[in-house]
Amino acid sequence: MRTSRRTFISCASLAAAGNLLGLRPFGALNALAAPSNDYKALVCVFLFGGNDANNTLIPFDTTGYGQYSSLRGDLALAQNTLLPLTPAPNFALHPGLPDIQTLFNSSNAAFVANVGTLVQPLTRAQYQAGQTAPTNLFSHPDQQLEWQNAAQSAATPTGWAGRMADVLGASYNSGASIPMITSVAGDTLFCNGISTSPVSVSPGNLGEPSCSEGSECSARQLTAQALLTLDTGISLVQADDSITSNAYAYAKTLSDAVQSITPLQTVFPANNGLAAQLKQIAQIIQVRSALNVQRQIFFAGIGNFDTHAGQLALQSSLLAQISPALAAFYNATVELNVATEVTTFTMSDFSRTFQPNSNNGSDHAWGSHHIVIGGAVKGGKIYGAYPTLALGGPDDSGSNGRWVPSTASSQYAATLAQWFGVSVGDLPAVLPSIGNFSTSNLGFV
Amino acid sequence: MNVRLRGLVLAPALVLGVTVFINGCGSSTGGNSTQQQPSVTVSGASQVRLGSTATFSATVTNLTNTAVTWQVNGVAGGNSTVGKITAAGVYTPPSTIPTNNTVNVTAVSVASPSVSGTAPVSILNPIPSITGAEASPVSGTSYTLEVDGSSFVNGAQIQAGGANVATTFVSATELEATVTIPSGTNTLSVSVSNPNPGAMASNATNASVYVTTVPTAARLLDQATFGPSLVTIRQVQSAGVDAWITQQFNTPDTPLANIPTPLPAVCLSANTPTNCEESEWWQTVLTGPDQLRQRVAFALSEIFVISSDSDNATTITYYHNTLAQDAFTNFSTIMHDVTVSPGMGAYLNMLDSAKAPAGQIANENYARELMQLFTIGLNLLNDDGTLQLDTHGNPIPAYTQDQVQAFAKAYTGWTYATSTGGVPTKFPNTTANYLAPMVAVESAHDMTSKTLLNGTVLASGQTAEQDLQGALTNIFNHPNVGPFVCKQLIQHLVTSTPSPAYVARISAVFANNGSGVRGDMQAVIRAILEDQEARAGDTDPTYEGGHLREPMLWMTNFLRAVGFTNTDANSSYFSLSNYSNNLSQRPYRSGSVFNFFPPSYVIPGTKLNAPEFDLENTASAILRLSLADSQVNNKITSFNIDLTATGPLGQLAAAGPGQMVDMLGTIFMHGQMPTDMRTEILSAINGLGTAQQVRVATFLVITSSQYKVMH
């Protein structure tokens, strides 16, 4: 009796607390059910700090490499260390990315060149003349958030993944027991919708909270949950009540779902934080049926790309973590027979100045080159336009090689969104500025 | 009436020998031709006080067998209503005075049950005893007087300052009264009398007259220290808010010990000396007397962020000690000392940043982040911390990319000092000195002119030190610094959501401490803590505001509240980092210069700017629950936390679960635990063993959102 009473109170008040604050339940909406074998997942890997794309995807032909090496100075990678791309012979990869080379050469990976935050198409001249551009360029937090919210300023409080969940939840996840979006890298704007919110998962730690009180454990938990339903009138207390109540519920759902799981055979690299996150994502994809989800978006991340000094060694060590982690994840999707249903892509604050600084590093810039991986990717190609490597040249926003993007991050997002199931009609709700650009589909997936 | 009543009362008090004549029966003892009558006479005290005992004896005459059995008011052995008596005649009164406070104690001959003797005894209230008394202010000269002691009974009367005051009976060990105490009075003479029958005064004692209430003291300690404890709550109550802050300003810093060279094995963790550095931090913040200084230094460390992620931990102790020493100086001093510290130098690359040769630019990292994160922010601010807007309603950038590059040039030329703190002969100095300010090598300094904020020009030909001073002064005097920094200090110490008016009041103090000084940290800190908005929750527990206890503060708050003993063989506190790390926090180990959580964070679905909530999500909430279980079950490696039945909370629980829960309310929740929460917890622990009551109740308190959000 006591149990059922408290459970009821807990659930009822959770909804009430959410309403008071405008906090969103993840929302199980009645709608058309899609075919049950229809599954797709998008996996975002965020490279926090601003990956130097100039040393990720490098011109390999004689002229292009010559321009590159003459300006990059101490940061230039030796041509004979670069990893050639067979289907795109004029370009090569950083030596730390052999797995990406393999995926690209087997047409399971593509690059999108010089993509970045934009509100509308912009040339160097237009930028310098003060036409509308994203706010607070070159600022880490602002550019991270603008990549995630696809808006002109960081102030927009929802991300384009969250807005996709808003739009698609009813059609695909009407009976889901967890939200459409799962973050394995903590709270992030990308995942927040207008009417939906994500679940956060600690990699390798899906379980319920531990308890040492033996037979008293369930009663203790019931009381702890009941305390979350007492109305205090303090907004922040209510916010935490809501988060903690959801935490209890999701932990139970997820730990039940993975209880009798068959371990993945794919070996993920050890001592690799990104690999641990991606392994956790693969495990959740594995139990998609138990969770009753047909669309999932995942957010993973890895930091320390802010290479203002000592860049060569630092970026090498980071790319050497990314490469095997992404490859293992792709292999896990093959093992789970969902390689063509899962598309993985990178985002980052910005790229870095093409001109090096005096500390063997580079500084904050703008347009970048990004990686898209998956069986559905039309791989082996470089999409978009690679910038002209000239300081003060046609693609430089100033004089230090901060490239004005030739492709908008919104176009990059729109291409992924349409593959994922967002209709052309719903696209503006997900990506409000998409109408400012000539195409909403770059065709890479 | 009086006479008769008096007679009725007094008569039974006479000890009577009752002789019973037995007719028609032969003597059971026989053989004695004199046939003297057997009798039983009872003697003993005529009065007994509750809580004590009285021993009665029976004199049996003319019987060989002198054994007797005992009755109270005719009940063999007595009962809980009239009191009980043992076979040996030891009488224990009932727990409360019976309706008729005189009972008859009767001894009955075993050999001849018809022969008995009786003595009346009056039951009186006990004599109360006082162990301590405290008067806490309510408002004006009105105080709540709490008297602790023993043997208080319902109806007990407190005499305060020689006069009877209306008294509330709380328990046998606690009485309360509302009293009026003239201002300036430090002590108040207190005694207690129990009511009749047997009224008698206790010992007299002097009550401590506190300057502040428990809620004020405990909330201040939550805002200004690493967590309240009963002892520190009493200290603040005695001193008052303003005087306590002054005491803390005058308390010297507890320095983190520098990591020894060569490195002892105990300091190594994954090949870096973070083990000892983090142990030092935990020990200092948990045990140092300079709590306000350390708490402000902690807040500063979350604004001027460095991290052993990329810094050598050896330099972190130096950096932390710099912040602690500077915490109560001037903000410009903090800016300067941080800028030249080797820790910040290495973290944001001002260290070894040389004048750029052709084809390169000066490293912009420190130049950008000093403005964006530490002092000014991205956009022009009003004095109340809100954004200034242009005619189109857009924010106005506070600086340009060209200015970033100009500052970058101004900061060139700095490298590690030599081992003796001097200027090295070459640039860069590749031999690190982690424990001394960086020094400038002029040959590596860009001496061209630089145009800074507001068009201020650093003339060409200046030295590195001149350019640095010029650049820092230029930034320090920017009007954004007050609102930008003060809002963050408020958020770290008091509330995530200060009103613009609160920010404006503190910004004004930053701009001018009243004596024309800009950036006076003592004035700013005092103003933040004494502001009406910081103190409103003292009297209104539902006042909006507060902030989530970030994981490391949540842990120190727990340890300081319940007390702990370090049991590590090397006295290391490092194990705590392993637990906090699960919750994405470790001392000086932020993942980036944007701190563990960014100041701009808004809780999704709300408009609440609540930075610490960036660490609170459905994954971390579960991890915190698991850690709480370890904490209350004494499973924290290297520490002993006594929540047993014999510990301080266990003893309270044994006396009454309500007293234990009230103590949790005092040490964790400023004495403001909501009634419904208290009821739920008492219901949950009802019937459990004492130790489990303590563990479960403590768990329920520290995992409640009501507690996790300090408000």
Q: Can you offer a commentary on this structure?
A:
The complex is a heterodimer of chains A (445) and B (711). Helix content of chain A is 36%, strand content 12%. Chain A contains 13 helices and twelve strands. Chain A has helices at residues 2-21, 62-72, 98-105, 124-128, 140-149, 160-172, 217-227, 235-257, 273-286, 288-291, 311-335, 409-420, 427-430; strands at residues 40-47, 57-59, 83-84, 91-93, 109-116, 181-183, 199-200, 295-302, 342-348, 368-373, 382-384, 407-408. In chain A, strands 1, 5, 6, 7, 8, 9, 10, 11 and 12 form a nine-stranded mixed beta sheet that branches. Chain A has a three-stranded antiparallel beta sheet with strand order 2-4-3. Chain A is globular, with a radius of gyration of 23 Å. Chain B has four domains: 2-124, Immunoglobulin-like (Sandwich); 129-209, Immunoglobulin-like (Sandwich); 330-478, no CATH class; 549-586 and 601-710, no CATH class. Chain B is built from 24 helices and 28 strands. In chain B, helix 6 crosses helix 7, helix 13 (481-493) crosses helix 14 and helix 14 (500-511) packs antiparallel against helix 15. Classes of the chains: A alpha/beta (445), B alpha+beta (711). Chains A and B meet through helix 5, strand 7, helix 7 and helix 8 of A and helix 10, strand 25, helix 19, helix 22 and helix 23 of B.
